[in-house]
Specification:
single chain; about 325 residues; alpha/beta; 7-stranded mixed beta sheet; two-stranded antiparallel sheet; 12 helices; 9 strands; disordered C terminus
């Protein structure tokens, strides 16, 4: 899971140490998965809370990043005490996500729906009628990993998802097997464009987790009143192919179940100014995500350094300030 890379933040280490740490983490998570699959749902929730509490105290760097992000987003609305409460709750939510993910093998295409509900499926069905495939814009929200199971179960052998491989190769292959168990096929980021175009031509569904920093060529948009460097791939593909793009999000419910919302296809602005259209339409997606975050502030992935990349003009100003000092 991306959570593993984020929390441990592996840097280059001597090969022997790196291999040993990867082996240890892989087998520890396999053991935890074995145990998690053999406890009741209520016990699993408690185990997730405990894991999140432990992570909150062990991983100071991620705790600091989460609080900094929360302060950037809500400093005008929430007190320091409230931000700290949301941060703690957020780590508990992440702990639950990990345990729920480790329990994926217990689900079948039928039993999954005892824990998951999908609302707005009709919008996706209508979009598929256009025979141009469908692009899903997905955020790291609630248990985002459950989306691969839900969409795979609802639309067998018609769903693809784009993902980066984890640095831990042992763990990466194992994680991907969990994600793909109900027919969703994971496409490596390196093959994303070619495989996405092929899938859309076959009228399939392709999901992008597109709310984090762009790895390379992105676009700056506003997010909580501040510029962020956003992934533009999903919107660019939608404009170039004419494929409908829909926003979908998984929200954890108070009873521990999950509700997946599928929004109607986003109405894209398409003019003669391609770059402006990319920015405008990407902004629509991030603004919609922001409304959900404000409603459920402890369910987004705050431990990701979302405001790390700054616009060139801000970087220049910081440079001038440092030189003046």
């Amino acid at each position: 899971m991306e959570l593993v890379n984020l929390i441990f933040n592996w840097r280059e280490k001597p090969t022997i140490w790196r291999n040993c740490s990867h082996w240890l983490i892989f087998h520890s998570l396999r053991l935890l998965s074995y145990l998690a699959q053999r406890v009741s749902p209520a016990t699993a929730i408690g185990l997730g809370h405990w894991l999140g509490w432990l992570a909150y105290y062990l991983f100071k760097q991620r705790r600091v990043i989460a609080k900094s992000n929360l302060a950037s987003a809500f400093s005008d609305d929430l007190s320091a005490v409230e931000i700290d409460w949301i941060c703690r709750s957020n780590f508990r939510q992440l702990g639950q996500t990990v345990i729920e993910f480790l329990r994926f093998p217990i689900f079948t295409a039928r039993s999954l729906w005892k824990s998951v509900e999908m609302e707005g499926e009709k919008h996706l069905m209508a979009a598929l009628q256009k025979k141009k495939g469908v692009i899903l814009f997905l955020p790291h929200f609630g248990n985002w990993e459950i989306l691969s199971l839900a969409y795979g179960a609802r639309f067998p052998n018609r769903v693809k998802a784009i993902a980066f491989r984890l640095k831990n190769r042992l763990l990466s292959d194992w994680v991907w097997s969990y994600r793909q168990q109900l027919s969703t096929e994971i496409i490596p980021q390196k093959r994303a464009i070619r495989e996405t175009l092929r899938s859309l031509k076959k009228n399939e569904i392709v999901g992008f987790l597109a709310d984090q920093n762009a790895a390379n060529a992105g676009v700056f948009v506003e997010f909580f009143g501040k510029p962020v460097y956003a992934v533009k791939g999903p919107i660019a593909l939608a404009i170039k192919t004419g494929s409908p793009i829909l926003f979908s999000i998984a929200i954890r419910q108070p009873n521990g179940k999950h509700k997946i919302y599928v929004h109607p296809p986003t109405s894209l602005r398409i003019t003669n100014d391609y770059e402006s259209d990319i920015q405008f339409n990407t902004q629509k997606m991030l603004s919609l995500l922001e409304t959900y975050i404000r409603q459920y502030p402890d369910q987004w992935l705050w431990i990701h350094n979302r405001w790390k990349i700054r616009p060139p003009d801000e970087s220049d100003q910081d440079s001038h300030s440092n030189n003046a000092a």
